[in-house]
Amino acid sequence: MLVRSTARVLTLAGALAGGAVVSQAPEFAQQYRQRIGGALQELDAVVADFDKDAAASQMTREEALTRYSRSQDHFLRDRGASIDKTLVRHARLTQQREALESANPLMKPFHVARYADPALVEGTWEDFKPAVPLTAEGGIYAAGGAATGWILVGLVFGFLGWLWRGLTGRKKNDIVIEDPPNLMEAGGAENSDTVPREMAVSPDLPTSLLERPVGEMPERK
């Protein structure tokens, strides 16, 4: 009973922990989206300045990047590679923000996991503030996390119980019960000594009245 009660308590604790953790997924996605907005504001200024300088030299963005990459100056080539990474990140974050704004609330955490920016994820996690799941999607994620935690902990205890029953059953089967020696079927002088003296029959005494000698029959008066 104690083992079952402990298993139930731990299973319930696993369900509560799973629900509490998974319920924060929509909130994390929301705070991540806010960080995308801040990052894009900084990148917008860098991209706008680059496009402005390229236009002043009567070049498009692609032409300016090509001139950087073909330059004989090592510094300018590195500068062009840095600008190219910035432009790529700006385009990726823009697409992700649009996808998060138009996505179903239940699917936003999946969008974050699929197109996550490592720097933004790290920053969001460092400043993440848990919130009580008051929204519908938060409640759904909490229920899913609770069910997942319940199932996982239940499977663990089920496996441990199966393993314990297997070990204890094997130990019981290894015990060999020997039958007591049959004194009646044992022969030889050694076995005759094991018979109690009160049960031993003297060879000189008859075993029945019919075996008595005739002369020993009692006389009638």
Binned strand content? under 5%
Radius of gyration: 45 Å
Instruction: State the separation between the terminal residues, measured CA to CA.
Output: 82 Å
Q: Which whole number gives the mean pLDDT?
A: 74
How helix-rich are the residues, as a percent range?
A: 55-70%
Largest sheet: none
Per DSSP E runs of 2 or more residues, the count of β-strands stands at 0
Count structural domains: 2
Number of helical regions: 8
Shape: elongated
Structural class: mainly alpha
Spell out the helices and strands N to C. Answer: HHHHHHHH
Uncertain runs are: 188-192, 194-201
Protein architecture, described:
This protein has 221 residues and is mostly helical. The chain has two domains: 1-24 and 139-168; 25-129, no CATH class. Helices cover 68% and strands 0% of the residues. The radius of gyration is 45 Å and the shape is elongated. The two termini are 82 Å apart. The relative contact order is 0.12. Mean pLDDT is 74; it is low at 188-192 and 194-201.
Helix-strand layout with pairing:
Layout: H1 2-22, H2 25-56, H3 61-70, H4 74-102, H5 108-114, H6 118-126, H7 136-173, H8 189-192
The gist of it:
With 221 residues, this protein is mostly helical. α1 runs antiparallel to α7, α2 packs across α4 and α2 crosses α6.
Q: Which characteristics define this entry?
A:
2 domains; 8 helices; 68% helix; mainly alpha; 221 residues
